Automatic annotation (TrEMBL):
Lineage: Eukaryota, Sar, Alveolata, Colpodellida, Vitrellaceae
Record PANTHER family: ATP-DEPENDENT RNA AND DNA HELICASE, ATP-DEPENDENT RNA HELICASE SUPV3L1, MITOCHONDRIAL-RELATED
GO cellular component annotations of the record: Ski complex
Keywords of the record: ATP-binding, Helicase, Hydrolase, Nucleotide-binding
One GO BP: nuclear-transcribed mRNA catabolic process, 3'-5' exonucleolytic nonsense-mediated decay
InterPro entries: DEAD/DEAH_box_helicase_dom (IPR011545), Helicase_ATP-bd (IPR014001), P-loop_NTPase (IPR027417), RNA-DNA_Helicase (IPR050699)
Pfam families tied to this protein: DEAD
Keyword set includes Hydrolase: yes
Name of protein: Helicase ATP-binding domain-containing protein
Record keyword Aminoacyl-tRNA synthetase present: no
Location of the Helicase ATP-binding domain: 18-187
Single GO MF annotation: nucleic acid binding
Length: 220
């Protein structure tokens, strides 16, 4: 099935994350930007749909939620994906719901998403919901907004598996241990491989120039 869904060779960290998802375990994936974490979210969604279950996908930004809503509709079909933000409610009964992390927190607290006729408190945090995907999970370390992610993890029903997708972090093991303590068995998948190398440049009125003598070098 995976070969049919993903007609390319999966990286080792993607396979490891998939194994955790198939075992219905919480998993934190820490990998550089552009390394293929989106594939892991698609795996979790396919796994939920194959079981006739529901899945939430959360992101820290409305713009990213809107983009993922469009992307997922192309992958899974328009009727399969819904969008919940403070501004927009679309296809709210869909099995795949895309939203901001703050909206997910409000759902956990039973708060309406909008204060009008479109307000909605989903009843999908029952046994039919199998996973919640936190994109940009490293925001949990953010001084101003990190408490939102903490509240979501602490209050998320234990039967819902957490898939946390994060950029490279300094403390992934600490986060894994904390998540395991408050939400159950958790796996940590770490990849430091960056398939798309970064180049550090500086701009002048004459053009772009390498920031370091070695154009492939970086800080440190």
């Amino acid at each position: 099935l995976m070969k049919a869904l993903f007609p390319f060779t999966l990286d080792a960290f993607q396979v490891e994350a998939l194994r955790s998802i198939l075992k219905s375990r919480n998993v934190i994936v820490s990998a550089p930007t552009g390394s293929g974490k989106t594939v892991i979210s698609e795996m979790a969604i396919w796994f939920a749909l194959a079981r006739g279950r529901k899945v939430f996908y959360t992101s820290p930004l409305k713009a990213l939620s809107n983009q993922k809503f469009s992307d997922f509709q192309q992958i899974y079909g328009e009727e399969t994906v819904g969008l919940l933000t403070g501004d927009v409610v679309r296809n709210r009964e869909a099995p795949v719901l895309v939203m901001t992390t703050e909206v997910f927190r409000n759902i956990l607290y039973g708060e309406a998403i909008r204060e009008d006729e479109y307000s909605y408190v989903p009843s999908k945090l029952t046994g039919e919901t199998v996973s919640v995907i936190f994109d940009e999970f490293h925001y949990i370390n953010d001084p101003s907004r990190g408490t939102v992610w903490e509240e979501c993890v602490i209050n998320c029903p234990k039967h819902i598996n957490i898939v946390g997708l994060s950029a490279t972090m300094a403390n992934p093991m600490d986060l894994k241990d904390w998540l395991a303590g408050v939400h159950g068995p958790t796996d940590l998948v770490v990849s430091e491989h960056r398939p798309v190398p970064l180049r550090y440049m500086f701009a002048t009125n004459k053009g772009l120039y390498p920031l370091f003598r070695d154009a492939e070098a970086g800080p440190g």
